[in-house]
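Below is how a single chain appears once it has passed through the pipeline. First comes the sequence as given, then the structure the pipeline wrote out for it. We keep one example in the README because the format questions we get most often are answered faster by looking than by reading.
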Amino acid sequence: MSSVAVDPAFEDLLRVLFQSHHFDFSGYKRSTLVRRVRRRMDLLGISDFADYADYLEVHAEEFGLLFNTILINVTTFFRDPPAWEYLANEVIPLIVAARQDGEPIRVWSAGCASGEEAYSLAIVLCEALGADAYRERVKIYATDVDDDALERARHGTYTAKEVAAVPDELRARYFEQRSARWLFRNDLRRSVIFGRHDLFQDAPISRLDLLVSRNTLMYLTVESQVRILARLHYALNDNGYLFLGKAEMLLAHAGLFTPLELKHRIFTKIPKVSARERLLVLAQAGNRDAASHLDHLTRLRETATDAAPVAQIVVDVDGSIVGVNESARRMFGLSIRDVGRRLQDLELSYRPVELRPRIDEAHRQSHPVMMRSVERLLPNGEVQYLDVHVTTMADNGGGVLGTSISFTDVTPHHRLQNEVSHAKQELETAYEELQSTNEELETTNEELQSTVEELETTNEELQSANEELETMNEELQSTNNELQSINTELRDRTDELDAMNAFMDSVLASVHLGVVVLDADTRVRIWNGRSEDLWGLRSQEVIGEHFLTLDVGFPVEKLASSIRECIAGSDGYGNTVVEAVNRRGRNIRCRVTCSALTGVGRARHGAILTMEEIPPPE
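Resulting structure:
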C-alpha cells in the first residue's frame, strides 16, 4: 500500500491539538486529515502548519470549526435503505428470538453524529417489538465525539428535508410536527441515551446485542482499526452482530468477525474458544497363531514397510539399527549392510537433525516426538523439508522394544504453503488497498455532499439576493419612470417658458420705449433693444450689473429715489424728465416712468423703468 510521507510540522500541529484540547487525531488517515486541515487553512489564507498552530492558540473558536471540518457529520435516516431493510427483516428477528421475554436488548450506535442513525434503530426495534415492549426492554446507547452534534441529537428535532428519507407511514407514527420541524416521539426517545465517547481512549460499552458503526472506521489507519475492532469485539455478546457502512469491509480481520451478509456489511462475532487439540491413540493387538502363520505375517509386515512411501528406520534399545525400509535407503543412501550398525556411527544421527536427544525424550516421556519442516540440504543445493516422527515401540507388557523414526517429505506441501501464504499476503494487501480506496472514495463523496449542501445554501442566498436586486431594480425603474415624467413636465414647462420668453422678447422688441427691469438689488434683469439704441450698451454688457452704477449718458442718480420708493412699496408711477446724452452724443430730453415689479400676493421683486425721448419745449 502507498504511504503518505510524514510532515513533522503537521505532526507538531496534532500534538498541539492533543495538548490543548485532549483530542487525539493521530489514529486518522494522514491523507484525509491533511486535506481537511488544509481546507480550513485555505479559507484563512494560511499556508504553514506552524502558523496555523499559532492561529489556533490565539483564536479559541477556530478549534470548533476545524473539528467540524475534520469530522464531517453527514448522516441521514435509514441511510442505504437495502441494508436497513435486511437488518430489520433478518437480523432484528434473530436478536429478539435469542432473548427470553423480558430480557433487555442493548444496542450501541457509535459515531451517531446528529442522531438520525440512533432514531432509525429505535424505529426498527419498535416496529419489531411493539411500543410497550420497546420501552421496557430496549436501551440504545448513541455516542460521538462532537458535543454540538450530540446536543442536536438530544433534542430530536429535524427539518422536513432531513426526515424526507423516513417513509410516510413511519414518519406519521414516530414524529410529531412542530411548526416547520419534526420532533421524535418523547416516550420513545427516553430509551435512546446520548453521550460523548472516544473510540480511541474510552472503554467500550459491553454486553451488546447489536453494534452499529457506519462509515466511522474508514477515516482511521489500519492500526487504529485493528485496535478499535478488538474493543468492538469485546463489547458484543457471543451471538451479537456488527453493522458497518458500505465503505467498510473487515476482510483483513477474519479472526474477529465473519460476514453474515457482506453486501450489506453485517457481521457476526467469532467467539474466542480456548479449545485444546486431542491426540487419537491407535492400538494394535498381537496375534498368537502358529509360527508359520507368524512368519508369514512378519514377511508381510516387512514387505509392507519396504513398500511404504514414508522413509522409516527402526532402532533397538541399544541404539543399533534393526530395520531400514526402501524409502529410507533411497533417501539417505543406506543399504542392507547398515542394519546392525549403531545409529551414532551414521551421519543420519545428527543430520538433518540430532536424533539421539529426541529418542531419549520419547523414551523418557513415553510419547511421540514430532519435528516439523526440518530443513535438509541436498547435494544439488536445493532444500528438502522433512517431518520427523520419533515413536517408542513397546511390547504387550509395556516394555520398550525400540524406536521407530519416520521421515515424511513435506517439501511440496511446504512450497505450496509458502505460495499460499504469499498469495494470502498479496490478497490481504490487495483487500486493504481496495478497502482504503473505497474508504477514500466514500470520504470524497462525504466531502462532495457537504460541498453540495454548502453550494445549495449559497445558491439560495444568491437567489434571495437576486430577488432583492430585482425588487430594487423594479423600484429604480419606477423611480426612473417618475423622473422621466418629471423631466417631461420640466421640458414642457421649459418649452412654455421659452415660448413665453420669446413672446416677451417680441413684445419688448416691438415697444418703441426703452424698457429696463431691475431686481430688488437694482441689478439689471432686462435691457431691451430700444435701451440699446438710446444708450449704446448691449444687454450682455449690463445684465446683472447695478443700474445706479452704469456709466451711460443717462443721469441714473436722479432716478435713485424713485427706484427705491418703487421697490420699497410705493403704489404710484414716478414720472421724471431728465436731460441726457444718447449714444450718438446728441442732447435729448427723456421721460422716465418708474413702476413697481410685483409677484404673487403683490410681493415686490424690483422696478420697471420705461424711457421715452420727447421733443424739446417750444
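Residues 273-298 have pLDDT under 50 and may be disordered.

See the next section for the split statistics.
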